[in-house]
Write a structure and sequence with these properties.
With 452 residues, the chain is an alpha/beta fold. It has two domains: 201 residues, NAD(P)-binding Rossmann-like Domain (Rossmann fold), CATH 3.40.50; 202 residues, FAD/NAD(P)-binding domain. A six-stranded mixed sheet has the order 3-2-1-4-19-18, sandwiched between helices. β8, α10 and β9 form a beta-alpha-beta unit.
């Protein structure tokens, strides 16, 4: 088979090495480009490692190896521990380095701000954001973990409504159950609780939930349960099909509640904060009504709800980059179809979740048509089926990578001197991080032995 050298004498920077970034980098490298994959973490696994709860043991390990197999390519230069905006400035990279193109594949990691004025003063003082919580949950068992730490007392308040918010309530319920069992000198396994459900595991120990005296967490959603984005409704669905899919959402939630024993309240939105001694200790919630597909606050209906903490699980959006124009919470594109953010001598593209502007797991699963009950139930642990969770995102990134390759190939090739100079600068960046160019050896070195 003929080798495709259409991108020979092009050097591309890909920011972020996870599912989308590794796929795009591999496609460009296969076509002859030198690709610098600039990754903020020691390992390039992104939301698979830090945002996908660790009970997805096999799926996480499988995707780690998928990413490794793509980045372990002779024309890919992996640059770990390098964060855009901290270690490298966007303007310098875009204007002074001389890359053929820059591809932002660094995902959507910034939690959408909690929608009550003044809430962020309580961040990690009673207000916990979803991304921080799942990061902690995935890593705190590691001996050398040094990140944020949370004590999950029973009765937590969760504000959300999508698949990711059900991940959050599962974490809270499983963690508080494990703690309650430990007080009885019973050691149980997190994966077993997630797989089998709380009550079946308690039954093995001759216990029922009420005996643990653990207040369940409660999930509040501003719309109706039938509106929860647990499964998509295609625009072309007829009224009967659409209604069936809405009812399926209620069944998914009911199954999740039965298995993990959390509580749920629809048609509630936060409108005020309750604090004590400098900590957030509850919310004022108002009733809502859905009118013309919008959730509207009903005046004079607020009530106080108290708990040990509040978890905000209302979505993730891309990090702000001052030099890239934004439209609301997402980037503004010169050409959204091609993912082109900035045109010029070094064009800037986007790929993966940073292109869609969405960072929740459901959005990574979305094929652009329908997330059916089969996928949702599998993801939430409500069925025995185990789906390849990153497959859809990889397929989407593959298409984006092919389009990027065509766009970059149309640009004038870099001079041999420019390519050589960029290679030297990339090597210097790697050396400053202690990376010697051997990708597999580096991954083995920086992977904790107790990483699940």
């Amino acid at each position: 088979m003929a080798i495709d050298n259409s991108l020979a004498r092009h050097v591309v920077a890909v920011i972020g090495g996870a599912t989308a970034g590794s796929e795009v980098a591999h496609i460009l490298a296969q076509r002859g480009a030198v690709v610098a994959v600039i990754e903020q973490n020691p390992r390039p696994y992104g939301k698979i490692e830090d945002g996908l709860p660790r009970w997805h043991v096999k799926q996480r390990r499988d995707e780690y190896e998928e990413i490794n197999s793509r980045l372990d390519h002779p024309e890919i230069e992996f640059v770990p521990l390098t964060r855009l905006g901290r270690d490298l400035q966007f303007n310098d990279l875009a204007q002074n380095w001389g890359f053929s193109a820059i591809v932002l594949a660094n995902g959507a990691w910034r939690d959408r701000p909690f929608p009550v004025e003044g809430a962020d003063q309580f961040t990690d003082r009673g207000l916990i954001y979803q991304n921080s919580l799942i990061y902690w949950f995935n890593h705190y068992p590691e001996k050398d973990y040094s990140g944020p730490r949370y004590e999950l007392a029973p009765g937590g308040i969760v504000v959300g409504g999508g698949l990711a918010s059900i991940d959050v309530v599962k974490v809270l319920q499983i963690e508080t159950t494990l703690t309650a069992l430990a007080r009885r000198n019973i050691e149980e396994d997190m994966v077993k609780l997630e797989r089998e459900g709380i009550e079946p595991v308690l039954k093995e120990h001759g216990l029922v939930w009420a005996q643990l005296e653990v207040a369940p967490c409660k999930l509040y959603y501003r719309r109706r349960v039938l509106d929860m984005p647990l499964s998509d409704i295609p625009a072309a669905a007829n009224p009967k099909r659409a209604e069936a899919l809405r009812m399926a959402r209620a069944k998914i939630l009911e199954k999740a509640q039965r298995k993990y024993l959390f509580q749920f309240q629809e048609l509630r939105a936060p409108t005020g904060l309750i604090e004590r001694d400098g900590r957030l200790t509850g919310l004022r919630l108002s009733r809502t009504e859905v009118v013309d597909s919008q959730a509207r606050i009903i005046p004079g209906t607020d009530e106080e709800v108290r708990g040990p903490f509040v978890v905000s699980s209302i979505g993730s959006i891309p990090e702000r980059i001052a030099e890239i124009p934004q439209q609301g919470e997402v980037y503004r594109y010169v050409d959204s179809r091609a993912g082109l953010l900035i045109d010029g001598p070094t064009p800037v593209f986007a790929a993966g979740n940073v292109l869609t502007g969405k960072g929740n797991i459901k959005d990574s699963l979305d094929s652009g048509t329908e997330i059916g009950t089969r996928v949702a139930e599998s993801y939430l642990g409500l069925s025995e089926e185990r789906l390849p969770l990153a497959e859809v995102e990889r397929n989407r990134a593959h298409e984006q990578g092919e389009n990027l390759a065509v766009a970059i190939a149309a640009k004038p090739a870099l001079s041999a001197q420019t390519v050589a100079r960029l290679r030297v600068r990339i090597k210097q960046l790697q050396a400053a991080r202690g990376y010697d160019g051997n990708y597999r050896a580096w991954i083995a070195k920086v992977t904790p032995p107790d990483l699940r």
